[in-house]
């Protein structure tokens, strides 16, 4: 693991979490939390001492100030964290059903995170980066879409490894725009998705293994597939820097408080493991499942994230090796 070897790219926003489960119109009060999948990933990587850079954009407003301060407090390097004087910060109101599953209502019309600018991260910075993580929400609107695609192209030219998470939010996309997600898959080395997301991207084979294999034909050598409380799967081709594999791992039983950010905790652990040189996909999935499980036991995606030792010990205690 090298200094500043990771770059995280994408949105930072304010999650408004409900005090009670139920339909959004019936919720009377909310808790403010820093959020956005890439921001959650960056904060958890910082908790793992991975020292990530983070390219994002928030408004030059009270919510933006709150987010910048929160990122700094979580140990995220803010060199590429921008505040936009001409745009507001994105808000996401979350609703929970009785099983704590979530739905989102976004206030994201021309907000700051949609206004990432091409060239904000110079190529000289990319030349020192080993892994670039990109969240798919950043591709849902211009000019951020073009800026992120430009960065991905330059990252590949600089021999960075690219990790892509489509993070499918249908309410943010027009039907004729989603081909850009397939473009990003084609530029990725590692893809994290759910089975439903793969289907939305056009990989509609009957089995999860076949969907992973089809996605890898477009570019990635490895797919990490999350299956909610049932666990996760790793699929790797002959082009991967480890043995070809299809391995399924069960999740961990915990008392679920809030699943917001659990998938991002999974991502952060996989990225950290890759950056640490872990070369066993099954082991990576075990650690990532542990990270996701622990995340679900607290409210909010950035609240007191565990360190790497805690993740590894939880995985070991619950029947897997570090």
UniProtKB/TrEMBL annotation:
Does the keyword Kinase belong to this entry?
yes
Tell me the keywords, alphabetical order.
ATP-binding, Kinase, Nucleotide-binding, Transferase
What InterPro entries does the database record attribute to this sequence? Answer: PfkB_Carbo_kinase, PfkB_dom, Ribokinase-like
Q: Which domain of life is it from?
A: Archaea
What the entry lists under SUPFAM superfamilies is as follows: Ribokinase-like
User: What terms describe the molecular function in GO for this protein?
Assistant: ATP binding; kinase activity
Domain named Carbohydrate kinase PfkB is located at: 5-306
> One of this protein's Pfam families, by short name?
PfkB
Q: Which family does it belong to?
A: Belongs to the carbohydrate kinase PfkB family.
Report what the protein is called. Answer: Fructokinase
Its taxonomic placement starts with: Archaea, Methanobacteriati, Methanobacteriota, Stenosarchaea group, Halobacteria
